[in-house]
Hints:
two-stranded antiparallel sheet; 4 helices; about 70% helix; elongated
Amino acid sequence: MHLHARSIRYFDMIRRCGSIRDAARQLHVASSAVNRQLLQLEEEIGTPLFERLSSGLRLTAAGQVFSRDVITVLQGEQRLATDLQRLATVAR
């Protein structure tokens, strides 16, 4: 189940991996696609979410705040999928 925007999934993977290249590898998509989604998300929010460092990416203060909500949303999606699966099993 994928109820949420691709951009927040990509953001979360970048956050976990610390780099766009590693996130792209985990997501099985091109690095340019991940970077494009991140840039679009930062433009929509109006602030950078990551500091671009030579050693990788690090969350900005805004990125830390955003990541807390993203984690909550993605965990909620997982709980919903589990609950719906249980209901389907009971209905059978």
